[in-house]
Amino acid sequence: MGDELELSMMTAVFEARAGAEAELAAVLARYVVVARNDNGCRNIDLVVSTTHGGRFTVIEKWGSPDAARAHLDGAAMTEMARGAVPLLATGPVIDLHDTISAHDLA
Q: Which residue from 49, 70, 69 is spatially nearest to 58, judged by alpha carbons?
């Protein structure tokens, strides 16, 4: 239970260009699969908004703040950005979070 205090969360919100929703979804889905293998990754989920068409959110849980920061400069993030940026209506919103209530379910 003590290691829960070191968890770090990251969110990234992406707004697809009109007509690029399926292509962006594919880029992000590939990223999620690849990034789950990065050191310190506890979980990554990809969700799509039901109230804002073309808005995707990636929710990531990392074993430590250092692991999350290292991931930001890693190959999975770089490859995803290269594929996603041309498909976006606006720049992504990426945020690192300190956890207040977050844990892994066994």
A: 49
Tell me the CATH number of domain 2-98, given options 3.90.1720.10, 3.40.50.10260, 3.40.50.720, 3.30.70.100: 3.30.70.100
Mapped onto helix, strand or coil, the DSSP state of residue 1 is coil
Task: Give the strands of the sheet with 93-98, arranged side by side.
Answer: 41-48, 55-62, 8-15, 93-98
71, 62 in Cβ contact below 8 A? yes
The pTM (predicted TM-score) of the whole model is: 0.87
Q: Strand pairing partners for 9?
A: 61, 97
Tens digit of each residue's pLDDT (9 = 90 or more) over 81-90:
999 999 999 9
